[in-house]
Every structure is written in structure tokens, then in C-alpha cells.
């Protein structure tokens, strides 16, 4: 198994004393005593990028309650340390503040609302400890010990419906909370997609998307009798950066908004199976949450969660999502106007440019091989020669499964007026 290089050695502050303080607060005993800790990398190469993560097994005594040799397995999430590109780029990023607010305030309230309505869902792992000293830190329960595991690939239709239900509940409770308890629209108003990369005037769109658009254009030009697609792709490409600023910057006319997970793909979810069927699931990684059009998460659901066969039943998935969304709003006592199915479809069309981003860029994520990317610092090096990456991108565009996706989606995008 390959691990990220920056997770082979934990930060120097990750000591027994630190965990005694963290667990002491969680267990309500400041005299908690650590007997032993074991620290390992938490994930494999390619499972995450914008943090470093460790799996920590702690054995400890809780004198206050006369409990001894307690054992707890935790996931510790923090920022890279040292002088590397990754550490430099992320040190002033808002992503840890976003995720901390989600785990400490928003997600518990979402679960409380659902539980009060008779739905005992668990949306995410439990927060054990959170602090900004000596670095931004989030400690979560390790749900893998309870049988949860990652899929590692897009999911089938039946599993997709379960994911759609959870997403619908996440969106519905966010609307209630925004109206009653917290101004989520002002708290979660920054997106990494359009924000400037530290110390540059560049955005993720500039460095992570547009170079690949040029390469994909070359691929489309190589297809026979493809002038119509090429012409429309060129028009779309010239407007894509502004279009994403409008979607993520909330500048498009909006019928309704929700709190988006905004990074809703198959590596940010864990499943527990019973007889090879999904019995329950929990969401992970809330660093990119954004109050905006529901089209963002719904497109992620369709393209970054579902496999190709499941996506052929997109209307069934959308209807299932909407029915769960509207029924949840009613169950939790939402008194505002409940958006209609037409409203949802209008949001998807108004923000149709976001679907272009999914089809022509983000969906390639599922075909990438990260097994040799042990030095994630290289991914954050804006000065690195891009020749090798361009060659890999060209190969991805020729991947048979991606070509199949393009041939299925291009006529639909053109027919809806989304492409070009």
C-alpha cells in the first residue's frame, strides 16, 4: 500500500500530552491519562489532497469515571507543516474554518432536526475535538472500525438512490437552519473553484481546468465529422471561467439556494454493507461547503457519484432526490415556500454551465491513477513543467469509458442548449 509522503511522519505537536488534552475534553475528565498511542497514515494515495490525515489509536484511563484501558480509534485531520508548496498554498485557506464550523455547529443541528422528526440518520462521523492551536485540527471518530468502507468507484442505481436521499436531507435541513438558526448564506460564501490561489492572481479554473480544455479541444477536433461539436465547445470554453464565477459566486438568477457539500464525489462517502447491499452511509470532507444553487451538488451526484448505467436513469434519480427533499422540509416543520420540481429543473438549466465542468473536467477524476503520486506537494507546484501532466490528460481523454461518456452526453448537452 502506498501512502502520501507528507503523512509518513506526524507533526511534532502530535504527542501523548496533546491527546490527553483532546480526549480529556471529549471524555469530560481533565485528568485523563494516556497509556499508549499509535499513529499511522489514515488514507491511501489519491484519497484526499487538501490536508494531512492520520489514524490514531489511543489507550487511556478516565479516573473521574473509574474507567481504565479504554480504547479509541480516531482520524486526525490537520494542515501540512513545513515549507512545501502544499503547506504554503493551504496555510491561509478558509477550508479548515469551513469544515470546523460544519462539524461543530451545522451537522449536529441537521442531525438533531432529523432525529426530532423521527429519522435516526447519522450524516457524518462524530467530532471528538477541534482547535486552531497549535494548528488547525479536527479529530473525528474512525467509522471504519464500525464496518464502514469506501467504494473506490462510482456507484450503481440502487446505491445512488440512497446517496440522493442523504443529499436531499442535507439540503432540506440547511434551508431550515438558514431561516431559523444561522445565516448560512453569509457563513459559507467562499468557493475554492473561483478564489485566488495564495500569492497569485490565478484560480483553480485557471490552473486546473482551462489547460485541459485546450487538450480536450484537440481530441474533439480529431473525431470525424465533428465540426458542430467543436464549434460549440470553442464557444463554451471561451465563457467557462466567467460562467463558473457566476455559478459559484451566486451571480446567476436564483430560484432557491441550499448549503452545498460542493465536493460531493465517491471518495467523500463511506458505506456499511449488509449481504452486499448498502445498509447505511456517512458523508465525509466538508471543507468546500457553499451556500448556492442546488445544481452544484446535484450535478456532482449525477456525474461524480453515479456510474454510467445509473446516470442513464437520471430523471428517476432527480425525482427521488426531489421527493425526499420536499418531504423532509415538511417533516422538520419548514414554514417557508417549498421549492417545486420545476424549480429544481430550472436551477439545473440556469446553471447549466456547471454541467459542462462536470462532463469535460471533473468526471475524469474517476479514471485517474494516483498510485504513483506519493508526493502530493508536486500537485501544488505551479512552476512544475506540465509536459508529463499534459500527456496523462491526453491519455485520459482517449480512455474508452470516458469516450463513451462523451458520446452519450454531448447530444444531450447540445439539445438542451447547455453546450455552446
Automatic annotation (TrEMBL):
SUPFAM superfamilies: Protein kinase-like (PK-like). Residues 138-331 form the CHK kinase-like domain. Gene3D superfamilies: 3.90.1200.10. It comes from the Eukaryota. This is CSON009903 protein.
Amino acid at each position: 500500500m502506498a501512502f502520501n509522503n507528507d503523512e509518513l511522519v506526524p507533526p511534532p505537536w502530535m504527542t501523548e500530552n496533546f491527546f490527553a488534552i483532546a480526549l480529556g475534553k471529549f471524555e469530560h475528565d481533565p485528568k485523563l491519562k494516556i497509556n499508549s498511542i499509535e499513529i499511522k497514515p489514515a488514507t491511501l494515495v489519491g484519497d484526499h489532497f487538501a490536508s494531512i490525515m492520520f489514524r490514531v489509536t489511543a489507550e487511556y484511563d478516565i479516573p473521574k469515571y473509574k474507567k481504565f484501558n479504554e480504547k479509541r480509534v480516531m482520524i486526525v485531520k490537520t494542515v501540512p507543516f513545513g515549507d512545501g508548496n502544499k503547506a504554503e498554498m493551504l496555510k491561509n485557506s478558509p477550508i479548515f474554518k469551513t469544515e470546523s464550523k460544519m462539524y461543530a455547529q451545522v451537522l449536529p443541528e441537521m442531525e438533531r432536526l432529523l432525529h426530532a422528526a423521527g429519522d435516526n440518520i447519522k450524516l457524518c462521523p462524530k467530532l471528538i475535538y477541534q482547535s486552531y492551536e497549535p494548528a488547525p485540527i479536527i479529530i473525528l471518530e474512525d467509522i471504519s472500525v464500525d464496518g464502514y468502507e469506501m467504494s473506490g468507484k462510482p456507484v450503481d442505481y440502487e446505491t445512488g438512490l440512497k446517496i440522493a436521499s442523504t443529499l436531499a436531507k442535507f439540503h432540506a435541513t440547511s434551508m431550515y437552519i438558514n431561516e431559523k438558526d444561522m445565516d448560512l448564506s453569509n457563513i459559507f460564501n467562499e468557493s475554492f473553484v473561483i478564489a485566488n490561489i495564495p500569492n497569485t492572481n490565478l484560480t483553480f479554473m485557471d490552473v486546473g481546468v482551462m489547460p485541459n480544455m485546450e487538450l480536450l479541444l484537440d481530441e474533439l477536433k480529431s473525431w470525424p465529422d465533428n465540426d458542430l461539436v467543436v464549434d460549440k465547445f470553442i464557444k463554451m470554453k471561451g465563457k467557462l471561467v466567467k460562467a463558473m464565477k457566476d455559478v459559484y459566486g451566486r451571480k446567476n438568477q436564483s430560484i432557491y439556494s441550499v448549503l452545498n457539500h460542493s465536493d460531493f464525489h465517491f471518495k467523500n462517502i463511506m458505506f456499511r454493507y449488509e449481504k452486499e447491499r448498502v445498509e447505511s452511509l456517512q458523508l465525509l470532507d466538508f471543507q468546500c461547503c457553499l451556500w448556492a444553487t442546488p445544481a452544484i451538488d446535484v450535478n456532482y451526484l449525477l456525474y461524480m457519484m453515479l456510474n454510467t448505467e445509473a446516470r442513464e436513469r437520471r430523471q428517476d434519480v432527480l425525482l427521488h432526490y426531489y421527493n425526499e427533499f420536499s418531504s423532509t422540509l415538511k417533516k422538520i416543520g419548514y414554514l417557508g415556500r417549498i421549492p417545486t420540481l420545476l424549480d429544481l429543473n430550472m436551477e439545473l438549466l440556469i446553471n447549466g454551465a456547471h454541467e459542462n465542468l462536470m462532463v469535460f473536467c471533473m468526471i475524469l477524476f474517476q479514471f485517474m491513477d494516483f498510485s504513483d503520486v506519493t508526493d502530493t506537494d508536486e500537485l501544488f507546484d505551479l512552476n512544475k513543467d506540465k509536459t508529463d501532466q499534459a500527456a496523462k490528460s491526453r491519455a485520459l481523454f482517449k480512455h474508452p469509458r470516458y469516450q463513451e461518456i462523451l458520446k452519450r452526453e454531448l447530444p444531450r448537452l447540445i439539445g438542451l442548449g447547455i453546450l455552446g
